[in-house]
Each structure stands twice: as C-alpha cells, then as structure tokens.
Design a protein that fits this description.
The chain is α/β, with parallel strands linked by helices. It has a single domain, classed as HUPs (Rossmann fold, 3-Layer(aba) Sandwich). The protein is 35% helix and 17% strand. An eight-stranded mixed beta sheet has the order 3-2-1-4-5-8-7-6, sandwiched between helices. A hairpin with a 7-residue loop joins strand 7 and strand 8. The chain starts with a strand and ends in a 22-residue tail after the last helix.
C-alpha cells in the first residue's frame, strides 16, 4: 500500500494571501506532498475575545483561493470541534480521518515553531505529525537549531530526526514573500491597492462583502501561523 503524504496548513487566514499559497506550493514540491489541506482556525485560544472575521467568510475565501490549483483543498473541521481550537485536538480528529495510510505534515513558519514549548500537549503534537518549517525574513537558524537539539532532534541530510518516537522536521529552501494579513487589512481600510497580494477571486469576494472596511474588522495576525496554542 502506498502511503500518502498530506500537508496541513493551519491559520486564521484573515484573509488568505499569496504568501500562504507560496508556502503551500513550496512544501508540496519540496516535500513531495500528495496534497495540502488548509485549515482555518475557528477560535484560536490566544485571540479569545478579539474581533475575527466570521468563519464562513474565511472559509469561503480559502475555497476561492484554491480553485483551479491542483493538490490544494480546505477543511472546516475546526468549526465542528469544541472552542477554543487547539492544534492537538485538531490533529487527533485528522489522524482518525486519514487513518494509517497517510503521513501528516504540519506546516508553520520557523519563527512560530520557536514557541512550540508553550503549545498545549506539545510533546504529543511532536509525536503525532511531521513538521515542515518555512523560513522568513530575519530568521535566525541558530535559534531553531538550539531548540531542536534541546527537544532531542538530530540533524540528518537536510532534515531533523526526532528521538523517542517523535516525527521528523523539514525546513523548506524557498521562502514565501513577506506578506501579512494584518498589513492587508490595513491597506483595505485605508483604500490602498492589494493587487498582487491576494488571489483575484479573494479580492472580489472582499469587495462584494465589504470586509475589513472598519477598525473593528479583522484581527492582528502573525502570518504563516496563528500561534493558537500559546497559554
């Protein structure tokens, strides 16, 4: 039986932008993934009480962004789970869904991974899925390598191998453009162009539904990862 390789990209996606899509495509190609599943957060615990664009709108924008892109799909699983949303709970459901014929690869920014020790049940997360890390501007490799060694990983042929049953960690060569959802929301509020930062269909959806037009629209997002598990 051939084992399928499924990439998981979680985040607030408020809104989904070209940086997210570039990350997903780089991971798909470099790690030879069969597909990438985008998973919008329903209610990240660290943003409890903050204004977030409705899950319905964020899911709709993700669906539009993936239209016509081979190997991309989105999942509404977090809307079905208890709130707030923790990565370990989402992974538990996904592992049950995909069963034993799949290997799961959780994708985040390398800078966000530096906070892994603050995640709920972080050891269980590291034992549950492989990680794909994306470097960003200002990324310091020594900070990441020091943490991985502390967690018991060893460097091997461009990746990091875990001990005691922990899954492997891969670092992408290609970096996505430095685009942030918060910056996009600010541009929209100020009436500035966001051409080239978002897929065309997403721009049209935002215009149609008048999203991000006021100071109360949207939240401050950290880009590639939503830091959902900070306590």
């Amino acid at each position: 039986m051939t084992t399928r390789k499924i990439g998981l990209l979680g985040g607030t996606f408020d809104p989904i932008h070209c940086g997210h899509l570039q990350l997903a495509e780089s991971a798909r190609v470099e790690c030879k993934l069969d597909k990438v599943v985008f998973i919008p957060s329903a209610l990240p615990p660290h943003k409890n009480g903050a204004a977030i664009t409705s899950f319905r709108h964020r899911l709709a924008m993700l669906t539009l962004a993936g239209q016509g892109v081979n190997g991309f799909e989105c999942s509404a699983i977090e809307d079905e789970l208890a709130k707030p949303s923790y990565t370990i709970d989402t992974l538990r459901e996904l592992l049950e869904h995909y069963k034993s014929d799949c290997q799961l690869y959780f994708m985040i920014g390398a800078d966000a991974f530096l906070d892994i020790l603050t995640w709920k049940s972080h050891q269980r997360v590291l034992h549950s899925v492989n990680f794909i890390l994306s470097r960003r501007k200002g990324y310091k490799e020594t900070n990441l390598s020091d943490l991985l060694k502390k967690l018991g990983y060893t460097s091997s042929d461009g990746s990091w191998c875990g001990n005691d049953g922990k899954k492997d960690i891969y670092i992408l060569e290609k970096m996505p453009e430095d685009i942030s959802s918060s910056g996009i929301r600010t541009k929209i509020r100020q009436g500035e162009s966001v051409q080239g930062l978002l897929p065309k269909l997403v721009i049209e959806y935002i215009q149609k539904h008048k999203l991000y037009q006021s100071e109360k629209a949207g939240i401050v997002s950290c880009g590639l990862h939503d830091c959902r598990d900070k306590c």
